[in-house]
Amino acid sequence: MPPKRKNEIAISVEDVGMEVDVVSDSGSEDEARRRAKNRRVKPQRKAKRVSSDEEDEEDEAPRKRGRKKKAKPRDSDEDDEEDKRTKEESDEESEEDRGKTKKRGADEESLSEGEMAALKEQVEEKKKLIATLRNKPWRMKRRLVLLKEAQEFVETFEGALGKGKGRKLYAYKVMMAKKVIKFKRDFENFKTACIPWERKIKEVESHFGSSVASYFIFLRWMYGLNMVLFGLMFGLVVLPEILMGLPYGSIPRKTVPREEQDTAMDFSVLNDFGGYCKYSFLFYGYFNNERRIGLLQFRLPLSYLLVGVGIFGYSLMVVIRTMARNSNEGGDGAEEGEFTFSWKMFTSWDYLIGNPETADNKYASITTSFKESIVDEQENQKDENIHLRRFLRVLANFLITCSLGGSGYLIYFVVKRSQDFAKMEKENLSWLEKNEVEVVMSLLGLVCPPLFETIAELENYHPRIALKWQLGRIFALFLGNLYTFLFALFDEVNEKLETEKSIRNATIWALEQYYANYSSHFNTTDVPPPNVQPADVIRGPCWENAVGIGFVKLIVSDMQVTYLTILVGDFLRAVIVRFLNYCWCWDLEAGFPSYGEFDISGNVLGLIFNQGMIWMGAFYAPGLVGLNVLRLLSSMYYQCWAVMCCNVPHERVFKASRSNNFYMGLLLLVLFLSLLPVVYTIMTLSPSFDCGPFSGQEKMYDVVMETIEQDLPSFIANIFTYATNPGLIMPAVLLMVLALYYLNAVSKGYQQANIDLKRKMKMVSMSVLLHVPSFSNISRVQDQTNDCAVYSWTL
Q1: CA distances from 102 to 96, 147, 160, 646, 690 (A)
Q2: Which GO terms describe its molecular function (predicted)?
């Protein structure tokens, strides 16, 4: 054949990229390189009109060289020579590309519209290549070369397309697209930087794993929730009263009584939240009962009631939304008992661990979990003395029930005793007698959980089941103590209501006698009000203030005990172990007392019940929410310091699950139980007659009915009357129950459909496995004639 024909055939073979399993001579390679150089040094105008086949030919060159290297195994010296040759070729290509770039920059003004459109398409193709380069099945060297060439091409010609008449709009769009992308990236970085305590939590997470960090994430979430509640309470209740209400000392409810003014600033009095604290905006009794205040005619009593109820509504919405988001994020669709060892093998490691000691503990924990799973499988097949096991479990539950009952009775007894102490002179009481209730409740919270854990050893449950029982018992302890405190507190409220009635009747009788005597003595009906200073007016006990003070003292004492426990139980313990280990009889680090571990479950449950007390007490003490914000803020720094300084990672590092709604479920239950006392107060009890925004009303909710009757049109009042009719409420409740039943039935149907689909998928997978032959005895045979590897698969 003629030489020209041979050259055409050689070019087509290279373009197609056929794999030739023979050793080509060096002359053909040199000739191919010369042809490639001649093609690259052609004039620029001609290169512009050529299609993208030549670029594909250049892209195929590294692939062809790679295939030749795979086809013929070479020595290490030959590989080094080939790599050096490839590097030299890439350098030559880059120099030639820079030369072409200069030529294109010089000739870009003389390009036609068609050429500009083709260049624009090439720029878009290069951008697409840059975006999808990581998905290409190419070698890393080729990716880097192509990425560099594409970036240089885009940087050179993307701005050049905007030069000339009619092309400025394109350049402006390109520039704005880059600006928008950069702005979005910077804004995402800014949002990440604005997340509070993110770096501190990541540091704890790297040392202790995600299980300990989950507590601090939950604490940060609670801080955000309380910040919103504080904004509502302070912005809609406290701030309007301070700015638009009557000043301090103008009315009796905002004035310290005359007999208490001498000791109103004593530390002992302020520590019990008496004196000036009692008659400040921290508590319910400070707020006035005027329907409208200030120039804005702000309805303070209505705002107080709506904010007090709206706090529960907002909290309920946030908790349910968080639970729904956690459920959507988590969940792998597998049942708990399925593929146990597969899940442990592939999903056990916590990739957020960054500390060697924690990593070693995690490694040991995974090993232990495998051993436990094997033991569980073996234990399921063994027979045991079921009667002895049942007896021990019944005995353990009996002892724990007695402990719960005893703690409840102790709290009830202490609260009753404190009521007797309240009738005595405070000078004759000791500090323990004044703060007996708070001290007893805090000590019960410290002593009972370890006692429950000791008794639970009799049950011999699996650790996971034992942990759930422990959490449930601590939850029952806190809940029982809280409601026992409330029941005893409402007994005190009933006594104060009786006292208020007698004081109110005596005050009304005294005013009637004053008006009668004045009119008869001066023989006139124009009787002026009595000239009595606000500090000298006889006051009622104001039971709302008493309830608010009780909750505030409980929160403050719980915070003090918690911080003192961390300081003594963790810090001093770590100091003793650290500095006395060298001169002690045994190893303090490995034995008793050793370093402490962070109690995740106890801290989270304490945080949950602290929030429950905030929800209940915020209605009687508006300043309690702000106090809780300061408590959470200090707890974040204090406990982070304690964990990093005094604690060691757990021996069994558990990975925190994204779909774990257990704590949120407890928080939702506490929210519902906290709502009940407040609703009972609003709907049943009579407010105090001389303090608070609802004084003078028969019930607290009468403020809403008064606003509807006086400030809204009559048809809206009729709508509310019909809406509160029991004949309309009962069908609405029945409809809601039917809707819940229908949704529950639909949910069960979907669950059954998922189970059927899983069963079908298992059947299909089993049938596929039965029909696919198993491959074994894979042998590699080296074909010496063609210098290539041939793999033979034997059934």
Answers
A1: 10, 20, 12, 65, 90
A2: mechanosensitive monoatomic ion channel activity
d(CA 602, CA 597): 12
Cβ–Cβ under 8 Å, residues 161 and 115: no
Give, for 218, the enclosing helix (H) or strand (E).
helix 210-233
Chain centroid offset of residue 543 CA: 38
| pLDDT tens for each residue of 670-681 | 999 899 889 989
Number of other CB atoms surrounding residue 178 within 10 Å = 11
DSSP letters for 276-328: TTTTSTTSGGGS---SSBTTTTB-HHHHHHHHHHHHHHHHHHHHHHHHHHHHH
The residue-averaged pLDDT of 440-466 equals: 78
Quote the tokens at residue 332: 């792998």
Rounded to whole angstroms, the Cα distance separating 272 from 562 reads 19
73 preceded by cis ω (within 30°)? no
Q: 207-238: per-residue pLDDT in tens?
A: 777 778 888 998 999 999 999 999 999 999 99
| Placement of tokens 């080729």 in the chain | 142
Alpha-carbon dihedral 373, 378, 382, 387, rounded to 10 degrees: -10
**Would you call 782 helix, strand, or coil by DSSP?**
strand
- What mean pLDDT value characterizes the chain? 75
The C-alpha atoms of residue 678 and residue 82 are separated, in whole angstroms, by 83
Long-range contacts of 414-422 (CB under 8 A, 24+ apart): 414/440, 415/484, 415/485, 415/488, 415/489, 415/492, 416/488, 416/491, 419/488, 419/491, 419/492, 419/495
CA angle (649 as vertex; 645, 652 as ends), nearest 5: 165
**Tokens 């803020």 found at:** 633
Helices (H) then strands (E): counts for the chain: 27, 2
Joined tokens for residue 746: 């639909």
3-state SS class at 777: strand
* Structure-token pair, residue 683: 């709907």
Secondary structure of residue 587 in the 3-state scheme: coil
- Give the Cα separation of 467 and 471 in Å (integer): 6
Torsion on CA atoms 546, 548, 551, 552, rounded to nearest 10: -110
Q: How is residue 568 annotated by DSSP? A: I
> What kind and span of H or E run contains 423?
none
d(CA 589, CA 576): 10
Find all residues with CB under 8 Å of 214, minimum gap 6, and list them. 600, 656
* Identity of the residue numbered 721: T
Q: What does the alpha-carbon distance between residue 285 and residue 273 come to, in Å, rounded to a whole number?
A: 13
Q: Are residues 688 and 540 in contact, defined by beta-carbon separation less than 8 angstroms?
A: yes
- Round to whole Å and give the CA distance between 97 and 146: 12
Specify the pLDDT at position 224. 93
Q: What are phi and psi for residue 789, nearest 5 degrees?
A: -90, 130
Calculate the CA 150 to chain-centre distance: 42
Q: How many CB atoms lie within 10 A of CB 353?
A: 23
CA dist 83 and 90 (Å) reads 11
Contact 161, 110 (CB under 8 A): no
pLDDT over 50 (residue 401) = yes
In whole angstroms, give the CA distance from residue 498 to residue 515. Answer: 26
Q: Is the distance from CB of 287 to CB of 245 less than 8 angstroms?
A: yes
Beta bridge mates, 298: 293
Instruction: Determine the average pLDDT of the residues in 340-348.
Output: 73
Position of tokens 């089993």?
A: 766
Q: Which phi and psi (to 5°) does residue 596 adopt? A: -80, 155
Q: What is the mean pLDDT of residues 79-86?
A: 49
CA-to-CA dists, residue 424 to 427, 538, 542, angstroms: 9, 19, 18
Report the 10 Å Cβ neighbour count for 125. 15
Which letter, b or e, does each residue of 433-462 get, where b requires 16 or more Cβ atoms within 10 Å of its Cβ?
Answer: ebbbbbbbbbebbeebbeebeebbebbebe
> What is the maximal distance between C-alpha atoms in the chain?
145
